[in-house]
Write a structure and sequence with these properties.
Layout (H helix, E strand, L loop, with lengths): L2 H8 L11 H11 L6 E5 L5 H9 L4 E6 L2 H14 L5 E5 L11 E7 L8 H9 L2 E14 L5 H7 L5 H10 L2 E8 L2 H21 L6 H19 L3 E10 L3
Parallel strand pairs: 1-2, 1-4, 2-3, 4-5
Antiparallel strand pairs: 5-7, 6-7
Helix pairs in contact: 1-8, 8-9
Length: 245
């Protein structure tokens, strides 16, 4: 079972691949989409859930998504067909960090995908290249609630606390105009859904050769969450505008 398969099963009951509930996603899109006929780009779109919700809410909106995963893009196409928005959605199988487009976008998204760019600031640099005048960026990133253990830092990477994260963003030429900090309920609900959905798939398919691996992955993830990073990890989504230019 490869990483894409694990992720697909793990997100079966939580299609937004980040610790956000449906109301938080809706509010962020309401604030992030600047007008009804906006053009939206998701860098690292996965199964396209953010784009599908934006397209459904705005019948004149057009959207594009970029991801390296063929299976995730296939899922996005099928979901767009079911939602009746496929004519307004273009999907690209490509490295999001290297993607180029012939036009600019009013909203550029990258939530929970900053690792693909090498961190938060490189993600913002990539987003800036695609941004139309007056456009906005919606980015989601982890941060430390308190000093992490060496094990947590090694596991989750080079994060900062929230004030330092915002200082870096502002120093990079961005102004936050809205944000959402995931609540404890959202963080826990996401982890329980991730581990529970994957474990349930394994238990429901005991004869599948991938079942033991899936159950082991769910168990390992749950143990790491509860014992290593649950009390130190936070997640913030920022809506940003260029401070100048």
């Amino acid at each position: 079972m490869n990483r894409d398969q694990i992720s697909r099963h793990a997100h079966a009951d939580h299609p937004i691949a980040a610790p956000l509930d449906d109301d938080s996603v809706r509010r962020l899109l309401e604030r992030g989409v600047p007008r009804a006929d906006a053009r939206v780009l998701d860098l690292g779109c996965g199964g396209g859930e953010w784009l599908l919700r934006a397209l459904t809410a705005h019948p004149r909106l057009r959207a594009e998504g970029v991801d390296v995963s063929e299976s995730s893009l296939t899922h996005a196409r099928e979901a767009a067909q079911l939602a009746g928005v496929q004519r307004r959605l273009v999907l690209h199988q490509a490295d999001a960090a290297q993607f180029t487009a012939p036009h600019a976008f009013d909203l550029v998204l990258s939530v929970g995908a900053t690792h693909a760019f090498g961190g938060l600031l490189p993600t913002l640099a990539a987003a800036r290249k695609h941004l139309a005048p007056g456009g906005r960026v919606l980015v989601g990133e982890g941060f430390w609630l308190r000093e992490p253990s060496p094990e947590a830092a090694e596991m989750l990477g080079d994060l900062s606390d929230l004030p330092t994260t915002l200082d870096h963003v502002v120093a990079d030429g961005w102004t936050p105009v809205q944000a959402h900090i995931s609540t404890r309920q959202e963080l826990d609900a996401y982890e329980w859904a991730w581990t529970g959905s994957l474990a349930s798939w394994a238990l429901d398919h005991p004869d599948d050769p991938d079942s033991p691996q899936a159950l082991a992955a769910a168990t390992t993830h749950r143990d790491e969450w509860l014992n290593v990073y649950r009390d130190v990890f936070g997640f913030v989504c920022l809506i940003l505008r260029p401070t100048s230019g």
